[in-house]
Amino acid sequence: MVKIGNLELDDFSLLLAPMEDVSDPPFRAVCKEQGADLMFTEFVSVEGLIRDADKSVKKLDIYPGERPIGVQIFGAEMDSMRRAAAIVEEARPEILDINYGCPVKKVVCKMAGAGILQDVDRMVKLTEQVVKSTALPVTVKTRLGWDEHSIFIEEVAERLQDVGIKALSIHGRTRKQMYKGEADWTLIGKIKNNPRIHIPIFGNGDIDTPQKAKEYKDRYGVDGVMIGRASIGNPWIFRDIKAYLKKGIIPEPPTIDERVDTTIRHLKMSIEWKGDKLGIVEMRRHYTNYFRDLPGIKEFRSRLVTEMNFEALYETLEDIRNHYQEIVV
């Protein structure tokens, strides 16, 4: 059993990574259906929260079927982080997570996200203030370092644990790497096996198959894996990993019916949560991925990413179902 504060998870847990404009309630719902053990919100700006900005506040929406869930915040100012932690606590998530890993320029230039990797002392002080300001278990997601010359993750892990975090998720790249190259899990494994470390350690980066999840579990001994980009268009990855770990088999790929039904359900939830226009527009990245490997999908995809009417989208999805059922038959 893995414990994060009072929250108990399976021995090897599958986490859905926080992804901006992706990890919203509709997407989290379909991932939960397929076996995600713990999920995180899109990252929430602390400055937006304390100013009651609609976009930031809406990201605190949590639905009963999603639990357990963590709200992830990002920021760089002590007072703002403390005040935002109090607001997050009112939303009653199971976890408050701090983002020290986002590599996007507009975030790091403010010394937030991965930007704070340039100042480890400040990262530790900021974390300590958040821990002291909330009753929620505080966790952190970060990267190996700012660049190849400043990889201090072993020191960071110990110091963050010492100020009270309850779990640490580590993306196996530096900020400079962004998402390029292969993630280096060597240090993640070293931290997990450090006798001083007693909090759960979750690894993140390049987990895109059940075989790789098992390989990294066995090789590095982590308490679980956090899956991000590989889940977009493929929430079944959680189901597949669990089946492979428990039974040594990988389920058959989702049928065309499963893909279409999931997409329709996802679309309906997206519209319900965001409204007609935004709900449809922000589904476009998902359409592309739900059907990305189907031969000849380009014609249908162009309809999906340009249409703004739900009924027309529904008809297109049914056309996809009928077309690919005939090909299989």
List its traits.
single chain, 329 residues, alpha/beta, TIM Barrel, Non-ribosomal Peptide Synthetase Peptidyl Carrier Protein, Chain A, 8-stranded parallel beta barrel, two-stranded antiparallel sheet, 11 strands, 14% strand
Question: How would you describe the overall organization of this protein?
Answer:
The protein has 329 residues and is of the alpha/beta class. It has two domains: 246 residues, Aldolase class I (TIM Barrel, Alpha-Beta Barrel), CATH 3.20.20; 73 residues, Non-ribosomal Peptide Synthetase Peptidyl Carrier Protein, Chain A. Helix content is 45%, strand content 14%. The chain is built from 15 helices and eleven strands. The termini are far apart. The model has no long low-confidence stretch (mean pLDDT 95).
